Amino acid sequence: MAEVRPQPALGGWRAWWQRLLGREDPDAARRRWLRQAGRIIEGEVLDVRPTGANQGLLVRYRYEVANVEYESLDVIDATGNQYWPGQRISVRYDRRRPSNSILG
After folding, report:
1. What strand order describes the sheet that includes 68-76?
2. Phi first, then psi: what are they for 82, rounded to 5°?
3. Are 28 and 14 spatial neighbours (Cβ–Cβ below 8 Å)?
4. What predicted TM-score, i.e. pTM, was given to this entire model?
5. Confidence band (pLDDT; 50, 70, 90) for 35?
6. pLDDT tens, 2-22?
7. At 45, which helix (H) or strand (E)?
8. Which residues pair with 16 in a beta bridge?
């Protein structure tokens, strides 16, 4: 009778290989998941700066979850999106890891 050996690293190899082949950018996957399943909360824009070379704007913002204040950065497309310091905004965050967020 043949011996069956478990292969616990197979899933890890598959994920590594897909990243190596460039099938899915981990940040793009994180952003997609937050847009679909992230909780929405109100936040405030702290600072807005150009990223250089017309690639977009760097928006620094803060929000509060369960009496803990978080501060984060997000790069957005500069066309049609206008943010200014003090503006109230929607933030999408991961309820298991509230520090994982994007502008909503």
Report:
1. 68-76, 57-65, 39-50, 88-93, 101-103
2. -120, 120
3. no
4. 0.72
5. very high
6. 444 444 445 566 666 666 676
7. strand 39-50
8. none
Concatenating the DSSP letter of every residue in 46-95 gives EEEEE-STT--EEEEEEEEETTEEEEEEEEE--SS----TT-EEEEEE-S
Cα–Cα distance between 97 and 95 in angstroms, integer?
6
Cα–Cα distance, 5 to 27 (Å, whole number): 34
Q: 40 near 92, Cβ under 8 Å?
A: yes
Distances (CA, A) of 104 to 15, 18, 45, 53, 62: 28, 28, 12, 24, 13
**Radius of gyration (Cα) for the chain, nearest Å?**
19
- Predicted local distance difference test score (pLDDT) of residue 66: 94
* Backbone region of residue 13 per phi and psi (left: phi > 0; alpha: psi in -120 to 50; beta: other values): alpha
